[in-house]
Amino acid sequence: MKTHASPPPAMGLPELALIAITFIWGGTFLIVQHAVTVSGPLAFVAARFAVAAGIGALICRGQLRQLTKAELFTGMAIGVSIFGGYALQTYGLMHITSSKSAFITAFYVPIVPLVQWLVFKQRPHPAVWAAVVLAFVGLLLLTGTDGLSMGFGKGELMTAVGAIAIALEIILISRVSPQLNILRVTIVQLATASLIALLLMPVMGEAPPVLGKTFILSVLALGCASALIQYVMNWAQKRISATKATLIYAGEPVWAGVIGRIAGERLPALAIVGAILIIAAGILSEWRPRRLRADGKAIVSSD
After folding, report:
1. What's the pLDDT tens digit per position in 130-163?
2. How far is CA 83 from the centre of its chain?
3. Tell me: the pLDDT tens digits for 252-296?
4. What is the pTM assigned to this prediction?
5. Mean pLDDT value across residues 37-54
6. How far apart are CA 31 and CA 163, in angstroms?
7. Bridge-partner residues for 298, per DSSP?
8. What contacts 56, CB < 8 A, 6 or more positions away?
9. Dist. CA 301–CA 303, nearest whole Å
10. Which end of the chain is more exposed for a tag (fewer CB within 10 A), N or C?
């Protein structure tokens, strides 16, 4: 479809909001690293999202009475995806290195437009495909040699399935949440992720954690972060496409690398190149060819 209109701004408020939460998202890695030394993965996921759901419920307690059936089932569906992504990635990290985990998790970058194309017949613009490839290469370089030496054991398989869950979460948020109340859906999805983790603890034979200082502070910090991250994702993805959001989310390891460097880690040269490629991919995803009509007005192709 062709429209005779000015192109939308490259960076609006939704894009800037998502960039901000990828910074917070990337910064949670160091906290998680410490937390899982004193807690099992399911207990930590359950406590983290229980705190996040509690914060949301406290903020909009008056609105919960108007919760609709559609909001309940939508929130539950997204919550299942959130649980799958976070829990499987945490389990995977018990068996593989964090850099290999980051590379495998990056599969959600090409999975999102691929699923949208195959299932929903939403064909991406060629520039988006090029940006997806560029972001994927950047993530590969960012993870270094561990990401290059693939081999699919238990940890790799869990992390790969977790990446699919993350892709489904992003797609679900974009397709079903625009017509619903963001706050109520966010609370339901956070509570669902927490409840699933809690119910699975005895099934998986995971013991309750010791309520020490590290666990409590980590849960409170990440609970607040999770509430903010999930709300902003729901709000922003009402306004931009899932593919565009995915490419912004691909900047998460860039921020994780920057924060890691501040904490004393050092990125190799290839990882820095990878970070630059990811940033370039975000810019490329916004590019659209512009042609001029005879009267001088721009013709912009819409996706």
Report:
1. 888 887 787 777 666 555 555 557 777 888 888 8
2. 12
3. 777 777 777 777 766 677 777 877 777 677 667 656 555 544 555
4. 0.76
5. 91
6. 21
7. 292
8. 183, 186, 187, 190, 227, 231
9. 7
10. N
User: Mean pLDDT in the chain?
Assistant: 78
Token pair 């948020």 is found at: 173
Q: How far is CA 175 from CA 28, 45, 186, 214, 224, in A?
A: 27, 25, 15, 38, 26
Closest CA to 5 of 285, 288, 243: 288
Angle between helices 98-105 and 69-92 (to 10 degrees): 140
* Structure-block tokens of residue 270: 């290839």
What distances in angstroms separate CA 102 from CA 112, 125, 266, one per listed residue?
17, 26, 16
- Location of structure tokens 């949670």: 28
Q: What is the DSSP string of 167-217?
A: HHHHHHHHHHSTTS-HHHHHHHHHHHHHHHHHHHHHHHTPPPPP--HHHHH
Rounded Cα distance, 71 and 177, in Å: 8
Helix 252-262 to helix 269-284 angle (10° resolution) is 140
pLDDT band at 10, cuts 50/70/90?
low
